[in-house]
Amino acid sequence: MAVITYREAIRQAISEEMERDPKVFIMGEEVGIWGGTYAITKGLMDQFGDKRVRDTPISEAAIVGGATGAALAGLRPIAELMTINFGLVAMDAIVNEAPKYHYMFGGQMTVPLTIRAVGGGGRQLAATHSQTLDVIFAYFPGLKVVLPATPYDAKGLLKAAIRDDNPVLYIEHSLLYPHKGEVPDEDYLVPLGKANVMRQGSDVTIVSYSRMAQISLEAAEALSQEGIEAEIVDLRSLRPLDMETVLDSFRKTFRCVIVEEGWKSYGVGAEISTRIYEEAFDYIDAPIKRVAGAEVPMPYARNLEQLAIPSKDDVIQAVHEVLGIA
Amino acid sequence: MSTKLTMPKLGFDMTEGSVQKWLKAEGDSVQKGEPIAEIETDKATVEFEAPNSGVLQKIILPEGKTVPVGDVIAILGEVGEAPAAKQENGQQPAKTIQAPATEQSIPRPQAVEKPPAKEEAEEGELTPLRRGPDKSPSRPAAKAPTRTEAPAGGTDGGAQDRVKASPLARAIARELNIDLTAVPGNGPGGRVEKKDVELYAEKMKSQAATAAAAPAQTTPVMAPARQPAPAPAAEGQLQEFSKMRQAISRRMTESKQTVPHIYITSEVDMTDAVALRRQINETMAEDSRISVNDFVIKAVARALESFPNLNASYQEGKLRMNAQINIGVAVSLDNGLITTVLHQANTKSLGQISREVKQLVKRARENKFRPDDLQGATFTISNLGMYDVEEFVAIINPPEAGILAVGSAHPKPVVVDGQVVVRERMRITISADHRVSDGAEAARFLQEVKKQLQNPMVLVVG
Questions:
Q1: Given an 8 Å threshold on Cβ–Cβ distance, is A326 in contact with B188?
Q2: What is the per-residue pLDDT for B210?
Q3: How far A311 CA sits from the closest chain B CA (Å)?
Q4: How far apart are the C-alpha atoms of B327 and A233, rounded to whole Å?
Q5: Does ipTM exceed 0.85?
Q6: A256, A281, A282: best to mutate for the B interface, most B CBs within 10 A
């Protein structure tokens, strides 16, 4: 197994899928000649030509709208959004067009569309470019929302997304791009909608995803020094949501902390904790805690931005609280 | 400060109880330790003593009504303290509430002695006029009992006596039939959590129910209780077990199924003990005479000092050593039997043992136990001597390690120094928990008991 970066894992997934299936192509701002704002698509235009690696005008509505049309016509497009924040401009195509066709027209057509976007904060890109909008998209039935936390998942989930006949929003985290991990040399898929127990533990379940799963992992290692063994469930996708894995873990630990980068209100933590109340009430041994982003537009100043994003220490403190040792 | 008096837990098995009789009325002053009520459990009636001195402010539980352990049954106030102004607990039926003195001065129409709202509703009266009298805001009791009984797990409750516990702790408590009000909470803010319930369950298990049923039927000192003539039963008729019968049935089955019994019998020469007893009793009033069983109790308690294993308890694969030697005395009753406990019997004189056992048996017969009477036995003696029994074997009363079954002492021809002579002989059989002890140890213990009984002066002097 090779050790590669999250960025490279995504690049390999795109490249391998384009090689495997001539119907797969990618379109977006600066994906071609420039090689992508985050250098994901570097070299792909040389490899596959400008028909399959298409630079587009600066219009997200056109990118996702056009890709949706291509998917309806039988291709398997990958639409790249420079950041998820710009996805708001393409909201109609993303949530009100792509996810609806198959359902509204009796299954006559499918929309095998993959939308890639970068989300999250931590790079001093200020309020409009640092948001975590995952839950907004996960709200809509018909759209799968996938968020890898490791290079292994980044590659396996993207390949699965490209091969899926439904529209999939695949949200990367810019701070994870340099993150390294083992990835198999052979072709593999990570099924959509199946959470991953990243770390076994018996004292508390930490539910998280994307970069916050890595932060939770760091917290768990520190907690282990204190003799607290946290089990980490990486959701991998918000829709479908794999509650079975979460509940299995919870029924083992009876305590839960949910960690997300987005705002707390109406968030992933609200959803997960409510489902635990609904489905595992008699297993609850302590109030469930949410660790989430500060409810402010993301500050530009580095120190304030750091305070607004959940940290390892925030996770440790929350775990202490649910264990009653705060 | 007023104190809430709750339904006490008077034995391992007890989950609910009722007040058979209030010995004090509202407003009566009580001394610490003074019996204020008779609590009826499934096994016995036990006097409930005031935990501190004060005034019985309010009786919440009416006589005869059964509530779970931990439910508030009365409020005890300090001397001179005004009764609590507001209703402390939502569970009391309105009829038992008497307007406290301080409130009587406030003019209040129709006071509190009206049927609870629930009853109204059940009458099916739909006319809104019925609610009219309820509108008086100054009447706390008018809100009436919304809650009548807490479930065994204590999962419900008024705001006042609600236990802070996690849903998981509640689920486990429900499963184990544990009263959460009795479980100390070690979570944040005193919340009862899983580990607290488990710890408590562990503790309760180890304390076990020495007070529950006793093994073999016997009446030691006293003449057997009168058996009422049984009513002729119809062929095939199924009769419900009494609660005591259920407890005996459950515990004896548990013992026989889980405790590997080993039995050893020895015959004791009681000639000297019988003679000594006769000699002592000649000087005693009839009601203070010493029985053969008193000698046996003394001898066993003394022997146990040298055999701590047989005074220990089997507990979860380990041996729990007991500092005190508390002898359980099986007493037969009209409707079953019960083991009363003579605490620290080894430290008591023969006369003291005799007097205390008489009291214990009397209280057992009258069904008026004190909490100590039923708890803490470490070794039991079952004596069927008065029924002309040669010998018998008894069932161990868990978690005790042994029980001694005592037969009748009667004249027998035996060989002494090559001559056939007539002696008073008595057979004793120990049943020992073979997990805890072995045949040889149990036999040595019997030898020690025998030695004491055959040299009865040491029992009088020691």
A1: yes
A2: 40
A3: 24
A4: 57
A5: no
A6: A282
